[in-house]
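Handoff note, outgoing to incoming analyst
You'll be picking up this chain. Sequence as last confirmed:
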Amino acid sequence: MTAEEWFSPEGDVHVRIWLAGVVFDYTATAAAVRNLIHDWSRKHWCTIGLIHDTIADSPVLPRLPCERLFYGP
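Most recent structure output, in case you need it:
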């Protein structure tokens, strides 16, 4: 299953990142997450999970740090 099948191409999504045994939950735009996953697929530097619920159902989550860096190619 691809990321595009899991969430809409627009709006915010809930992304979970595991890094060195620590879990981080963030909100990010779908475009930024798609580019993050593309970057990650070249070198797996962490574990990424997409949470398939709406942002409205989630508690208030912080924005992905440096999210704007993932807006472009």
